[in-house]
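User: I'm writing a tutorial on reading structure tokens. Could you give me a worked example: one chain, its sequence, then its tokens, then a sentence or two explaining what the tokens reveal?
Assistant: Sure. Here is the example chain.
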Amino acid sequence: MTDLIQLGKNAKEGARSLALLPTKQKNDLLVAMAQTIKKNQIAILDANQKDLAQAEENGISETMQDRLRLTPERIHTMADEIIKITQLDDPIGKVDSMWQNEDGLLIGKKRVPLGVIGIIYESRPNVTTDAASLAFKSGNAVILRGGKEAFFSNKILVELLQQALTDAGESPYAIQFVDDTSHETAEQLMKLTDYLDVLIPRGGASLIQRVKEQATVPIIETGTGNNHIYIDKDAQLAMAVDIIVNAKASRPSVCNAAETLLIHSEIAPFFLPAIERALVEQGVTLHADARALDHLDTATLADESDWDTEYLDYILAVKIVDSLDEAIEHINRHNTKHSEAIVTDSYTASQRFLNEVDAAAVYVNASTRFTDGSVFGFGAEIGISTQKLHARGPMGLNELTTTKYIIYGNGQIRE
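And here are its predicted structure tokens:
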């Protein structure tokens, strides 16, 4: 079993030195990390092939293998995302506000790192480089525990990031890897309260729930995306079809993909056949309620579990609703607070949807697939927070900081 206590001690040491690094030095080190990733593309692909071979042997679906698969293009994208982070403002040391109180004290609120971040995640190797580089730029040491599906890919990526630090004469302790994928080690990490300042789980519903139930370290909940597209009675048909096809079929294995289509009953008879044709062409299977089933040729009857399922596959649940109120009520009852969208030309309906739907990201006339730190301009992301405390939505650099109060006096004492 990995010695997590030692990793924790190392991380504390790494965090102390990292928090003091000037922005230029952090950026130079990130560039070195990106270059090291690009130079070692063949070794990364070889490691990834080991993971893919095991995935196929274990019967993992093709859509889930897609989450795991690395290509030369994806590796270059991972490196480029690291470079993008160097172009973002460094939040560390920024003073959000400053004021003078009635005692003459000058009081400021300053951005500082969280400290040591633990991340438990599943089968996407790009999370390794995204999380490590964001944590590094925001002055945080990170302990990464990936899933067994991507073990070889994650391991070599962390080794290369550490190599870049070592080659530059810096401590590799800022980025560390848990090389034991057992549940026992994961549970120990969840309770590493003496060393971790926060734990971020990133993965499927079962992982998130397990961390919520077992962790004693403070957590930021991320991830699961039971996302909805609601087609209002005033929607443009062609626009709605394009948005739904993109949200469901462009990459169904990711958390910002749509899982349920809600459609107003006034337009269902002529809209559903059109969207069915477009989705079937993409290989999507439909699970529809009884009313929608009357207008579809290939769908099967949905049951109650479909409304709560994050398929992460070419499957879409379909339901007819009679009003915007019913759509909002259904979404707020079944969603995971991730990403929700309405397609409508009605300003009133769009504003009600934005105001009343409870989710981290709410769209009008756009695909849910845009919920992404890079797309939002944050560089990469460490996850999509679906909770309401500390951070919500795509988590970039600022969300990996906290604040401290700095107070300047000139001899004041409290009477």
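What the tokens reveal: The longest strand covers residues 106-113. The CA atoms of residues 381 and 395 lie 5 Å apart.
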